[in-house]
Design goal:
Elements (H helix, E strand, L loop, with lengths): L1 H7 L10 H8 L2 H19 L6 H26 L7 H16 L8 H22 L4 H20 L9 H7 L7 H18 L2 H11 L1 H6 L4 H27 L8 H13 L11 H20 L4 H26 L1
Length: 331
Amino acid sequence: MTQTSTTASETIPELSEGPASKWRLALNPVVLAYGAVLLLAAVGGILDRNFLASDHLFTMVNLGAVLGIVAAGQTIVIVTGGIDLSVAGVLTFAQVMTPFWIDGQSGRWPLIIVILGIALLIGAVNAFGVSVLRVQPMIMTLGVGAVISAAVLILTNGSSTGGPPKFLVTTMTRQGALSGLLLMWIVVSIVTYVLLHESSFGRKVFAYGASARTARLAGLRSGTAILGTYCFSAVTAAMAGIALAGYTGSGDFGIGDTYLFPSIGAVVIGGTSIMGGRGNYLGTIAGVLILTVLEAILIVLNIAAAGRQIAEGLAILIILIAYARERRLRQ
């Protein structure tokens, strides 16, 4: 258990005095990630003098909030050594079904709770497949995500109609420093950080991610950790979908796919090991900001959507190469 605790704390900078500790702090993945955010922001400021204007900064943060909410659950899943590819389907489900079921009628807002409950059930199905049936997380969550996407098409007959409740639209489209999207991200961030770094649940997650076999031999109930992990990921993805429904005012059947790989990329860029056992949600926040600012820079450069997709694809390839390299080093 001593080894597990050390692994879990590797992402926290050492504050002891001395040149070695200063180098460890400077090379800490979280510190490097936030350094990259500042560097990209400076580049954006050079390219466009309005890039660092308060209104534009708030716009970028609000747009990044949805990704940050999805990445919160993805962070905890990846710390366990797993991955959740069903977040795309869950997000699409919530974003499409919120206006479809509620249809602009404020009296139907409790259906939002129903959507979150269904997301919780989806997370439990993922956890059952991974923990009990021993299906690889990538395969299990990919299959569940495909089923959800198909179910949405069947339920709506392929037509997205209706509208979210007015209070949701008002909250999510509110302008200013503390918009509804940003406020939701802040709340999710606090809950995620406490769960991962300040609770017994988080210690189980890190222990399981570092070595599932060792965790079981130590008497840790891995099933509980996995259940909580995938349920939390599904709920945060649904929350992001509901927030998007209020922000856009309508449903989009392909919206979830645009957040799938960026949510994984933000986690890995922020210093969380895709092999599990090491990570920090503060780093994930930096990863979200990096991707958001990078997207804004590409827009400033008038790069077409196809070009931005190519850049995202290259980023994914780099992540996969890093994943393969780390796997070889661990063997």
